[in-house]
Design brief:
184 residues; alpha+beta; Maf protein; four-stranded antiparallel beta sheet; 4 strands
Length: 184
Amino acid sequence: MLAAAGVAFEVLPARIDEEALSAALLAEGADALRLADALAELKAVSVSARMPGRLVLSADTVGALDGGGWLSKPGTREGLAAQLRLLRGRRHRLVSAAVLARDGRALWRHAGVATLSVRRFSEAWLAAHVAAVPEAVLGSVGGYHVEGLGVQLFEAIAGDLWTVRGLPLLAVLAQLRAMGEMAE
């Protein structure tokens, strides 16, 4: 998304234990917003501490089912089918948080929220869909990419599609311009 928007960047791994932080926050009763924000902040602060003077952007997306429960990255096609069955005919929220940090300190944060309504679909359609989607979908929260075949899962999406894709891009671009990192 950043490359398509003309933003130069370098990808650096955060090397953090996301599962441990997530488990701790969930044990404390954190909601999707708190969880996504904390994960994005930990990644941004961690990388920026290793890169003195550099501005670091990190983002994280968390999915929460209406009525309780969390979405995951399915990992396998069997896991994908199970998760999509769980979503069938239900609504869920995606929270995509972004944090900008420098020198080990968070400078700015923003979270976008989108509400997605999954349509009812047949088992035959589900089997064909699971077989047809690219492998990359298995590593995505919810198990879909709305910019691809995943758009067929939905009857309605309320919110910013950039948020659904994992980064509240418009807010990030506005902040980069406000900070003088991009031309006004």
